[in-house]
Model the fold of this input.
Amino acid sequence: MSKDYYQILGVEKKASADEVKKAFRKLAHKYHPDKGTGDEAKFKEISEAYGVLSNEKKRQEYDAYGRVFNEGGAGGGQGFGGFQGAQGFDFSGFADQGFDMNDIFGGLGDIFGGGRRGQQQKRGRDISIDLEVPFKDAIFGTERKVLLTKVSQCKECHGSGGKVGTEMETCSNCNGKGKIHETKNSILGTITSVRGCDNCHSTGKVPKEKCKDCKGQGVARKEEEISIAIPAGVDNGEMIRLTGGGEAVSGGVSGDLYIKLHISPDPVFRKEGNNLSMILNVKLTDALLGSTYTVATLDGDIDIKIPAGVSFGEILRVSGKGVPVSKSKRGDLLVKINITLPNKLSRGAKKLVDEMKKEGI
Done:
């Protein structure tokens, strides 16, 4: 389930950019790890929320889909560049928003020289596809299979990168730590950062013999069949998220797959919430005297009784023939009456109409 960034910052969804900034400023000053009231996890969470809500484009994406589609496929949790190394946060996103870091963290000393914070886990790229769905399948639900060419976990070595049965040994590049410490000087002082070791994919171990299928990477680009369960009653433009269905990455977690549904229109039926609606053409005589019409619905033929004297535009409700809401409950079918008039009348018919007219009908 995606995070509620508005709740994290304590602002309403309609909050202005200034209100979002003010809320973050207050919380960041309270929870920064170098303060007595600091909370490292909470500070990371509010920084993540601000990184998305302070950016107009990312905020629009978050409001629409509940997450952010970053360039390169990273999730919303990396909205302004992520967290780098130990305590070395990347504050470039805050600078773009006009923040004075001394104003927020004044009196805390050099916050970049620490070494407490660990790196974020790597995450594969998200994938977004479009899928055409027939109207009937959208109403009752179905399962579709699609072929995608993407980077996936190697099935031969199950992501380890090693030949099946081979031993794992300590990575010589990071001495088994899984991470590389880097220190550099800047106008802000000494910045210490930590990055994952590329040689062992941050695991600290490497196989003695590499997997031939993926050449030791643990992932490989290939064609894969994906099963997509389309729930009953989906709407046009709705998005389905398959967690872990995106691209895999060495030493990390797979991204997500997003499927945007395009529902084909039906020539007879329309979806209105949990109900289905249709127009039924009824002859004038049947409207006056009443009749029974057989109607082909999405799940079989039904008989609809037309009451005598039915009016043009009147709606007849057929219970339980609409959109499935649960295994035992469905919406209704709404039948709108359209009374059709004859193009020509015979002499006998005209005479009958004249008699009706005399009677005030």
